[in-house]
Amino acid sequence: MFDRYTTDSFYDEMFEADGSLRGQCGDLFERFSQFEPEEFEARRNACDAHFLKQGVTFNVYHDNRGSERIFPFDPVPRVIPANEWEHLEAGLSQRIIALNLFLHDVYHEQQILKDGVIPRYYVEQAKHYRPEFRGVDVPKDIYIHICGSDLIRGDDGTYYVLEDNGRCPSGASYLLENRNALKRAFPALFDSMGVRSVDSYPRELRDMLEFISPHREGDAVCVLLTPGCYNSAYFEHCYLAREMGIEIVEGNDLVVIDDFVYMRTTKGLVRVDVIYRRIDDDFIDPTVFRKDSVLGVPGIMRAYRAGNVALANAVGTGVADDKATYYFVPKMIEYYLGQEPILPNVPTYLAHEDSDRKYILDHLPELVVKSANESGGYGMLMGPTASREEIAKFRDKIIDDPRNFIAQPVVSLSRCPTWCDGSFEGRHVDLRPYIVYGNQVKIVPGGLTRVALNKGSLVVNSSQGGGSKDTWVLKD
Amino acid sequence: MLSRVANSLYWMVRYIERADNLARLIEVNEQLVLDLGKIDRETLAALWRPVIASTGDEELFDEAHPDGQQSEAIHFLTVDRENPNSIASCVALARENARMVRDQLAEALWEELNGLYLFVNSDEGAWKLANDAAGYYEQIRRATHSFHGIAAATTLRGEAWDFMDLGRHLERADKTTRFLDITTFLERRIDEFGLTVDEHWLAILRSCGGLGAFRMKYRAKFKPRNIAEFLILSSDFPRSVRFCVDRVDQSLHAISGTPRGGFSDDAEIKSGQLLSALAYASIDDVLDGGLHVYLDSLQTRLNDIGEEIFRTYVLLPEQIEDRPPIPANTVSAVVRWQMEQQQQ
């Protein structure tokens, strides 16, 4: 099964550069080598059938019929040894703590701007900065409660942070469901390899929500606010609500009276203390943000300002995951914590800085250019594979609005063996761990490994031909 | 329980019940047609009219199929997604409602319904419908029964259960009256079809799944009068109108916490009135003014109960009267676009 496998000089998650096996993958290699291709294919199909039967799907937009698909799943797990995971945990914790201190600062004293560590311009011009929330205190001073930071590994195996998703990070349900699927497919491996469980995620999420409740400690009414059943992540919203044992609500289910939020039940109105919202700032309150929003709850921002309801994540966190802000995160870590960053950023150029911009414009065919506030693989230029027209188009866009663009060298993401048409081949992967910040920082040992299923592709987003894998963090 | 959730659970079960009833009705009618031996196309088409009439979608059918043949009728009733009451549409709507409240459902319950949806929309389903129609409808019925069984075995006996029970029995009562009303239509043309009175009344009984139970109770005295009495007034046959209304009344009181016999809202008043009318009626009362007229009035009263339930539990307090919930199948492009907002 691995006879023809080559690493092609990429960093490989299972094999060393000389083709020998990485220690943590021994049992996995043994077991997978024993399969006949047909048998392995059958197990994979069983996983797919299981997902379909359970309706573990995401909605595909602009497709009238059959608008749900299963997220392509690859049954070869990615294995992370214990020491590597400890390093990631430390780095991610450091990062979320710094990001939260930064958010508190920019919505209060703005000391970091006064000290010139981050030019004021970048914060104030950030699309998701909410100046109207300056001076508003949020429960326990936490802004990003759930963070999905994307990590990649370069040629030498170094982990880099690619971006911090601190608004409505999604995908945790796939992490949990992928694990269920693999437990069914290869039960024996879990014992022999000592894979750490990911089951704690919903409980930790729920504990965090309870922790930030402004009242009724230990007995808070928590809800999950969804944009509705047509959202691509609607499956996840239902899944998490059920796992946490809380209600999933739409905007219309909530009503604000005298600055308190209530949900409409068959027995009348019930007061709500904490909202895990999976709806963007823009839509959450038509009386404050987008006037045409039919998804939000009129008056909810008043209740929030009054301290009567907690929101996870807080309003205005988007300023922290603006890609220009990303550039400054290592500086934040030094500034607020007095520590060296444990996990480096990918080298980044800011198009707004004259010298950087000149470099970017001169080297477009070698760079990845990203707009500051897009996600899902949209608004991106992959220099090496782009056509001349695309490059010219991005050049104009950058000159027009330099604040909105950053550029990075192409990092040749690490690869992981992946089941492709009857044999294993290397495919590029990234990793999204989920960090929950409540009473303390909790990181579920695992994460969503996204894989670019198309040969040679570096784009792992589900909207762009990506799939996912289970991630196995091993016990010591 | 959230009002929207109550509403979704109620409709989820109503649609399942509707699909089940329709599957049985089509299957029985197909068998009935087979018994008639060789008949011409027009008669064949005419034999499907009452079935389509009973679903209330005659106009829609005539528009789409001015020359409505048997195959078109079956297609329209079974898989046509343009027909909001076809089996495929009912299953899709039930699933859509279930999807909206998935967090409230036992995993097995969702899987059963999702499995039914996948079957109806699969090549396997299409093949089966074309080559083994009886098997196809049987599979639909089995899946809906299995759905009710899983629900009964896994749902906490609380509000969720009561709203589901409410939907099930209101729909069931309504369908029983509609199936009975088919006789009104058939009787007018009975000679034309070469049917005997017994045959078509038996078909109605079979459509309601009541053949066995009827035999036990009436010892095979298949007189129209007995069958009507059994399907409308019997207190112990689970698909009779009276039985269903009794369950509706029981569920309503369980939800509000008001003892039975009394009332705390308009839904309870209406169900209580209908229940006592049925409890104290005799089959002579029913037939005196004509069966069709009686069935018509039953349908109106059942609809009224449904509307009162919506007013009482879904529209609820005065603050929200100006913000009615958005029904899932009528969302505008704008709402849809907003719902599709980015997730990271």
From TrEMBL, chain A:
Highest taxon listed in the record's lineage: Bacteria
Domain named Circularly permuted ATP-grasp type: residues: 77-452
Instruction: Output the Pfam families linked to this UniProt entry.
Output: CP_ATPgrasp_2
InterPro entries recorded: ATP-dep_Glu-Cys_Ligase-2, CP_ATPgrasp_2, UCP005522
Name of the protein: DUF404 domain-containing protein
UniProtKB/TrEMBL annotation, chain B:
InterPro entries hit by this protein = ATP-dep_Glu-Cys_Ligase-2, DUF403
Domain of life, source organism: Bacteria
Which protein is depicted?
Alpha-helical domain with a conserved Er motif
What Pfam family is a match, any one? Answer: Alpha-E
Residue span, DUF403 domain? 1-313
